[in-house]
Amino acid sequence: MNTIRSLMDRVLGATICVLMGVMVVNVIWQVFTRFIIGHPSSFTEEAARFMMIWVGLLGAAYVCGSKSHLALDLITGRLTGARKRISEIFIQFSALVFSVGVLIIGGGRLVWIQLQLGQQSAALQLKLGYVYLALPVAGGFIALYSLFALIEALRSGTDAESQAEGRDRS
Amino acid sequence: MNEAIILVMVFAVLLFAGVPIAFAIGLAAVAALAVTLDPVVAATVVSQRMATGLDSFALLAIPFFILSGQLMNRGGIARRLIDLAKVIVGRLPGGLAYVNVLACMLFGSISGSAVAATAAIGGFMSPLMRKEGYDREFSASVNISSSVTGLLIPPSNIMVVFSLASGGVSIAALFIAGYLPGLLLGLALMVVAGVIARRRNYPVGDKVGLTQSLRVFGDAVPSLFLLVVVMGGIIMGWFTPTEASAIAVLYTFVLSVIIYREIKWSELPRLLTDSAATTAIVLILVGTSMGMSWVMSSANIPQTISETLLALTDNRYALLLIITLILLVVGTFMDMTPAVLIFTPIFLPVAISMGMDPIHFGIMMIFNLCIGLCTPPVGTALFVGCGVGGTTIARIWRPLLPFYAAMFGVLLLVVFWPPLSLALPRLLGF
C-alpha cells in the first residue's frame, strides 16, 4: 500500500511539475509573440488554460497525498484517541464519496457526453472530452489516496493512536 | 427552498467535521441539486461547472504569482528589504517596529502572501528586535498585523479570486483600488507601534551613512523594480494581469537563479511542484465553488438573502455594518480563499442592489478577511507569526488588541468612505 502511495506521489509530483513549467514557458511565449512579433500566437492561450485545468485537478490529488487541503480543524484538531479515529474515517469516507461520485462518475459521464458530441476547441482542434478527462483521472487518484487512508484508519485500533496523530494535517 | 436548506446543512456538517473545504462544497452542491435532479446528472453538472470554472485565462495569474512569490521567498530578498526599511524609518524612536511594518508591506506586496511575509520578515526581525530589548509579543504583534497589508497592496492573488467569484470585476481595477487602503493600514499600524514603542522607550536605530544608504537602496532596487514592471504594465494597459504574472515569473527567475544565484537549478523541480500544489489548493476550491454558486443562483439563494437583509433595514449603513460583522466572524475561523469564494456570490448582489460599486465591495471584503488571518481561533498569519516569534496565542492576544483596533478603524473607513477604494481606479479611468 505504501509503495503504491509513494509511486502515486512521484508520478503526480513529476506531472504537475512539468505541466507548471510548460505553462509558464507557454504564456511567456505568448507575451513575446504579442510584443515582438506583433500578433499573439492563438494556440498558446488555449493550451495554457487546458494545462491549468490539469494542474489544478492533478495537483488537488497530489495535495491529498500529503493531506494538506484547506480544512477547518477547529473541532477535529482537539480530538484524541477513538474520536480522532472516527473523525478521520468520516473525513476520508467523504473524500472517497466526492472523488467517486462527483469526479469519477460525474466527470466520467461529462467526458463521455463530450466525446459523443465531438465538440472541439477553437484553436487547437482538441476534443474537449480529452481536456475534461482530468476530472475522472484526478478522481481516481484521490479515491485511491482516501481509500488507503481509510484502510489505515480502520486498521489502526486504539493502540495505534500515536501513528494517526503523527500524520495529522498541519 | 429545500435546496438551500440541504446545501447549507450538508456544507456545515462536512465543514465542521474537518472534511477538506473544497470537497465539502462540491458534495453540498451535488446534494442540493439532487433534490430535483437525478444524482448522476447532478454530479455531472457540478463536475462540468468545475471544469468550465477553471477554464479561464484570468485565473492563470494565480499559479504564476504563486511561482514568482516562491522564487522570491528563497532568495535574500527579505534581508535586502529589511535593510532598505532600516534606512528609511530606522532612525525613528522604536525604529525596528517601523522597519518591521514597512518590510512586511514591501515583502507582502512582492510575494503576495501574508504567510510568507510573516515567516520571512518575522524570521529575521524577531531575533533582531529581541536583541535590542523589544518585547517578544510586541514584535510578533507588529509582524502579524502588518503581514496582511501585502494582500491589499497589489499584485494580490486574492483579488484575482474575487474577480472570478464576482463574475468578472476588473482585476486591474481591484489591484489599483487596493493601494490606498493597504498603505493606510500600514500607516495606522506604524502609528500604533510607534506610540507603544515611545511609551516603552524602545531604542532608536543606528545612523546609516549616505554611501551605505545608497548601497542598500541599490541592493533592493532589483526586487522593487518587479512591482514597477508588473503594476506599471497593468496600469498603462500594456499587458493583462495574467501576462504580467508570467513576466513576473521570468523576472524573478532571472534575478534569483541567474543573477543572484540564490536558487540552484537543481532546486527548480521541487519549487515548481510546490507551487503547483499550492496553486491546486486554490484551484480546486475555485472549481467546486463555481459548482456551488451555480446551485445557489439556480435556487435563488442570493436573492432570498438579499431580500431578507433588505427587509431587515433599508438603511445602507446599517446593512453594510451587518455584512461587515458577518464577514469578520467568518474570517475568524475560515481561510480567506474559501470565504471569498463562498460569500461573494451571496453578498455581492446585496451590495450592488444598495448601489455599491463591486470594486469597493471587493476591497471591503478582502480587508475584512485580512483581519481574520490575524485572529484566533483560526488565523494562518497568527499561527505562523507566533511560531517564528517564539510566542503563543495565549500570550499574544492581549498585546495584539491595539493592532486589532487600528485594523478595525481602517476597515470602517474603507467600508463607509468609498473614495478610499475608488478614487485611484477612477482617476486611472476604470
What does this structure look like?
The complex is a heterodimer of chains A (170) and B (430). Chain A is built from 6 helices and no strands. By secondary structure, chain A is an all-alpha fold. Mean pLDDT of chain A is 88; it is low at 159-170. Chain B is mainly α and 430 residues long. Helices cover 80% and strands 0% of the residues of chain B. Classes of the chains: A mainly alpha (170), B mainly alpha (430). At the A-B interface, helix 1, helix 2 and helix 3 of A face helix 1, helix 2, helix 3, helix 4 and helix 13 of B.
Termini Cα gap of chain B: 38 Å
* Radius of gyration of chain B using CA atoms only: 22 Å
Task: Please describe the biggest sheet of chain B, giving its number of strands, its sense, and whether it closes into a barrel.
Answer: none
Biggest sheet of chain A: strands, sense, closure? none
Order of helices and strands of chain A: HHHHHH
In round numbers, the mean pLDDT of chain A is: 88
Biggest interface: chains and residue counts? Answer: A-B, 60 and 62 residues
CA-based gyration radius of chain A: 20 Å
Ends distance of chain A: 23 Å
The shape of chain A, in one word, is elongated
Helix run count of chain B:
21
Oligomer: heterodimer
Query: Structural class of chain B, please?
Result: mainly alpha
Highlighted features:
heterodimer; A: 170 residues; mainly alpha; 6 helices; 76% helix; disordered C terminus; B: 430 residues; 80% helix; 0% strand
List the helices and strands and how they pair.
The complex is a heterodimer of chains A (170) and B (430).
Chain A: H1 2-37, H2 42-65, H3 81-117, H4 128-132, H5 134-155, H6 161-166
Chain B: H1 2-16, H2 21-33, H3 39-54, H4 61-74, H5 77-89, H6 95-111, H7 114-131, H8 136-147, H9 149-152, H10 157-165, H11 171-199, H12 210-235, H13 241-259, H14 268-298, H15 301-312, H16 316-333, H17 336-353, H18 358-373, H19 380-389, H20 393-416, H21 419-427
Helix pairs in contact in B: 1-2, 2-3, 2-14, 3-14, 4-13, 4-14, 5-6, 5-12, 6-7, 6-8, 6-11, 7-8, 7-19, 8-11, 8-19, 8-20, 10-17, 11-18, 11-20, 11-21, 12-13, 14-17, 15-17, 16-17, 16-18, 17-18, 18-20
